[in-house]
What does this fold into?
Amino acid sequence: MDVSALLTSAGINIAICVVLLSLYSILRKQPSNASVYFTRRLVSEPVKRSDTVCLERFVPSASWIMRAWQATDEEILAVGGVDAVVFMRIVVFSIRVFTIAAMICIFLVLPVNYYGQEEMQRKQIHAESLEVFTIGNIKEGSKWLWTHCLALYVISCSACVLLYFEYKSITKMRLAHITGSPPNPSHFTVLVRGIPWSRDHSYSDSVEKFFSTYYPASYVSHQMVYRSGAVDKLMKDAEKMYRMLKTIEPQCKVSSMPCCLCGGTTHSFKVLNNEAESVQSKTSVDGLQPTRREKERPAAFVFFRTRYAAVVAAQVLQSSNPMLWVTQLAPEPHDVYWSNLSIPYKQVWLRKIATLLGAIGFMFVFLVPVTFVQGLTQLDQLSHTFPFLKGILKQKFMNQLVTGYLPSVILILFLYAVPPTMMLFSTMEGNVSRSLRKRSACIKVLYFTVWNVFFVNVLSGSIIRQLSVFSSVRDIPTQLAKAVPTQATFFTTYVLSSGWASLSCEVIQLFALLCNVFRKFILRIKEEPSNCALTFPHHTEIPRLLLFGLIGFTCSVMAPLILPFLLVYFFLAFLVYRNQILHVYVSKYESGGQFWPIVHNTTIFSLVLTQIIALGVFGIKISPVASGFTIPLILFTLLFNEYCRQRFSPVFKRSPAQVLIEMDREDEQWGRVEEIYNQLRSAYSQFPLISQDLSTAVNSGHHEDKESSQDPESLKPGMIAGT
It folds into this structure.
């Protein structure tokens, strides 16, 4: 692949970005798209819609870029919580470290790579192969390899220093989140699973007896987890339908506008506001459900008087049988994934093994499309396998398109199936909270993308070769050292396609936009939907950022030409993600920055992998001095990681007793204890009773729009009738 093919790929992606970003700046000004681009505002406050037509609405502008640039971390924290700030710190960290890397590698390493073969005949820049800009162009025994070793030291030390300060800052932010937030029911609540079955007592009686006996001073009460019945599901479906139609007036209205699908008139719905009928209906369905004891599951939320007592109960082994009376701190009420609480605890470890095997199997099945994609980058093999393509591939533009743009696009299309699959695996694991499920999916997607996008593409070839290349651990540095420089061109085009273009698709929200167009112009529904709130997709975006970080670290010294394109991606990501957090995504639950340890560990892995690859390259190029200086750098990076693990990681696993006891004392001083006790039981109500009168909610207009950002489990079932 030559420079002109790279410029072709860059030109295509730049054109796509400019078109989509310009289109976004126009679409966001249209009132009909408020539910797509201003979701946060819709669910938090009523928005007055203005249909005034003016020329400014149809002219692209950069106002959203200025708003995203000027937003502070305090604003991000206020609207998105700690997790949003942590995500943006990933982007900021990447910008800082790769700015340093670009400065030293572009001005020091790149010229050394280009002039590494003094006797080689030079071509014009646009006709040069990209391999002449890599470390592979340097002859063996060259004395100029000290520049690469120096750049490696500068990048590694800069990354470690920045990582330390980021870890320290986010740890303080997590502690401030724990101490500064209002009393959280999850701090006083312990989730108990594996409750032993008794013929003489119900699960509820067993919980009451156990904790009253062993925690008499701190135990308050408990809330059992119940099995969802058919009637419960129907009530939830009715509530969802109600929320979809709650903006309609509580009387029947027949629209004269024909429906685009069936040609008939559209009908609205009215809410049954007869309290007697609601009570009668509730009484009738109660007779259809099993008794409360029959619906109880071996899981319960147990409430304690203090935070410290809850933490102690959560961390202590409750029984001589570790599979019984298993305790952990409860997730936040809106974070609970109720359906997984019914899973017997003894099945959890089997589910984790099964999902792990399924994820590994999926990773190996994905080798087929990745191998196909890599075949497109090798024209000689492609022409030999498909002789009828020889004539087409001789055309210059088609040659550049196939080698520079098509492989990364095909790989991206295949990768779209990965996050939903990994989220399904994480759900089947039995995670009891939505944040844990998303964190588990994030780790799975990260492992998947690092293996299939990086390692499999680097060690491209037949599947047998990809599996046998790791047969000897001793040969790994050498194999990677030979492969990474040759695959740097593919990674550069991947950054352009999966990076630049994906950010443009993210900001334009294509799927939500198409759904909105279908709803407004096909179904003729003018009211804004009340259930349009989306949470931030950490499980897709964090792995993408970390993958680009891995590619940037490994290629910075080997093929520094990728760094300018990578920096453009991170700067664009800074603006796009800030805009999305401020206007689109809604925080339904908070993990308190639990994603940062994943980021730290992956960055350390990327640094060590980069140093191992550099060690292999220095060995191939016969540079014992550079190799000798690289080994201490690897040891220093591992020692730094161990220090951070001992210094900061425990805060993300356990809450400090000192902080919890001080918070408990403050509650006693301010007289908030009774108020907290009153909130505990209602906070973890699995099946809330039917609301007083749903017509009251309708008459309140947009007052309840804020509630639409809650999880489905927290919604109150209602009754709707069509007219």
User: Anything to note?
Assistant: The first strand starts at residue 189 and ends at 193. The mean pLDDT is 79.
